[in-house]
Amino acid sequence: MNELIIDYNTLSxxxxxxxxxxxxxxxxxxxxxxxxxxxxxxxxxxxxxxxxAFILAAILLLSNTLWVSGAILSxxxxxxxxxxxxxxxxxxxxTNVSSLNIGISYITFSLNGGQKxxxxxxxxxxxxxxxxxKSKLVEICEYxxxxxxxx
Length: 151
Hints:
Blueprint: E1 4-6, H1 13-40, H2 45-63, E2 73-75, E3 79-82, E4 92-93, E5 97-102, E6 106-111, E7 116-121, H3 127-144, E8 148-150
């Protein structure tokens, strides 16, 4: 079976490369003006404009390199890995799942024979992605003979 990955943070590699090059150029350009104006002692409008440009360029550079988040939800034959904000990010192993309840915008996993329950809220996903996630979960449950039901 194929792995299902839901990711809304995808930029094409050319856009990402252009953003990184622009960020590097603007960071260097703004830093040059900050240093030259700071050395000359003229803390005028050019210094503060360059300082603001440096901060914005650094944000552009970091948002395309270090601050890129991973996939929101990843489902394969072995694990379910949610990365939804405000929810637990620990992976759910299919060997521990005893049953599955599918709601309108949530999924509840019964783990270890029903001793623990783990709920994943799918409200932040698009409707088409929610349908895709539900169908993938049903497919895996049927393949692994895990009982499931709709709430």
